[in-house]
Please model this.
Amino acid sequence: MLENFEAVLREDCQLVKGRPIVVGVSGGPDSLCLMEALRQAGYPLIVAHFNHQLRSDSAQDARVVEKTATRLMLGSVIDGADVRAYAEEEKLSIEEAARNLRYRFLFELARARNAQAVAVGHTADDQVETVLMHFLRGSGLAGLKGMLSRSVIETFDAEIPIVRPLLNYWREETVLFCSANSLRPQYDASNDSMNFQRNRIRHLLLPTLESYNPKFREAVQRMAQALKSDYAFLNEAMQFSWEHCLLEMGDEEIVFDLERLAQSSLGLQRNLLKQAMLRLRPGMDVAFATLERAVHLINHPGPATRVNLKGGLYLFVELQKAYVCTPDAKLAFNLWPQMLTDQSYDVELPGQLELAAGWKFTAEQWRIPALAQEEAQNNEDQFQVWLDADTLTEPLALRVRRPGDQFEPLGMDGHTQKLSDFMVNEKMPQRAREHWPLLTSGDSIVWVPGYRPAHSHRLTETTQRVLYFAIVKPIEKIE
Model:
């Protein structure tokens, strides 16, 4: 019975016989079968039972598991909690609350006992039901592939894996195994309750689908097996793209190269953004619609630079970077020049002003107009500019924007536009606009550093006197 079981343990579950395994035992046929099959295979076991306290007779299950473990010379640990109260407190479904508390117990026990894995008794029937649940939710490949024989659930433990040695065996086989080995499974009446989605799938949906294809369960099982290989291939491609596109990763934000991300296929974009969300919020259920909002922002840049995702996470783009952030993310403002206050500062010639985060503004006179013309024509640094001094009126000042500001950008032949429109058109980072330094002459803006000077103050062939202005980025320390 349970053909090739030991090969599954070695190859699929990657278990070794030298270290203990925490095996979750509910008292039903699947978990009792798993416990006994592992014992017969020679693995040291710690039997773990969690009482969900959802039934008046649930304590009986715990006593039976404890007695069975004792009879088989196995150590056991029994624990429990009021799942219904926890579900109400955390606003979770009963199924989700039960899973959270049960897995938390199993993995804490595994960590305390230095176990190599947590083993659970999911069978091929459970796999089929899980795939259908994911299908009904509109899941992608990650959900349709079903459960894996070995995986890590980082929400509970980033190192200890959960293993499912019975995934390729049907529930009928576990019942026969229990009978052949004198094990008496407990009957859980909650398995018949139509209040749980899994039970409705098991008792209502599956029989209906089998009326169309008597081998429907086997077909779903084969599909899940085939998709596992496709999913592994996708993961390899995603890992390559992740390393190619990733710029920074912290506890509160993950930053991608926007151009490289946009050049990736839509499928990879969705998976990379989903992976980023799961890194920041492990265990989150990420819907397709959420990912569609995100990839639309990546591929259709416009006035909007931010989109809300889920659970407080948001995506925004600026300076050729795409940020996936938590609500508490403290993003750097030293990427560009910023004024320290809303006050206006007079500009002296020559002179220097300190800006935020180590940036500096400098001003000086140039006495050779021809040299200035040459430098201006060859200049590629938008944070320095040469202006015709005779077109400027005092006082010269550096300030932030004000309501109603107009600007006359170079190249527009003297036409003005709202400064706010100019900032939007030039894709100036939205969160930087409020304190962006502006050079003014009287009431007129004569230079928006990093972008353009005003058309009327450009150098011309008749320019006699030149003023030079620059904003200098702080030197990065090399550690």
About this structure: The mean pLDDT is 91. The CA atoms of residues 217 and 299 lie 40 Å apart. The domain at 224-325 is CATH 1.20.59.20 (Chorismate Mutase Domain, subunit A).
